[in-house]
Amino acid sequence: MKKTFLTKNIWLKLTSFILAIALWFFVVLSGRSGIFIDIPIMYINVPHEFEVVDFPKTVSVNIEGQERLIKSLKQNEINAVIDLSNTKEGKSFYTITKENIKFPKTLEVTSIEPQTIGITIEKQLRKTVTVQPVVVGVPERGFVIVEINVAPGTVMIEGPRSIISQINNIKTEPIDITGLHHSLQYKVRLSMLNTSVKTNEQKVDVNIIVNRLK
Questions:
Q1: What are the per-10-residue average pLDDT scores of the chain (214 residues)?
Q2: What structural domains does the chain harbor?
């Protein structure tokens, strides 16, 4: 009896089973989509004596999942994280895997390009350099600059060794003295052309002393 039940209308039952599986896949995959996006790379645990000087800022990944979830994905919800706690000075290469990608678990990362990135690490260097005021324009006719004082006259800079070793002074932003006919004190910013260079001072006082010609 049981055997008859199992074998009776076997093709109809098999067809129903296949249709059920197809329906299940249709429901699961319905509305599924994919997108290639560039995501930021975060470098963490950089030893204090080192600085990352040459590095890729983004990596391209393919994200798949429900279309509505992908459309609602925010930029700060996905990024790549590289741990540099064991890094060494010089050129190093790191492999990016799915474990390096931080993203909502409702989505899936299916590919990463490139899978290997190269970064350059340098030791940091500190150095004391002089501040050079930059003055543009000329005083009013009949007046002349007799002295320019800067306080502080020196600042401490810090950054990658290859960059800091080539810096001997830090200039101020331009000070326009066009038409000046009396002494003035200016508070001006230092001109930091390289973002990897840090300083203990952001502004300095520049005292410009002007006298009348006799």
A1: 53 64 53 82 93 92 82 82 92 93 86 94 93 94 93 94 92 93 93 87 94 85
A2: 32-114 (2.170.120.30), 124-212 (2.170.120.40)
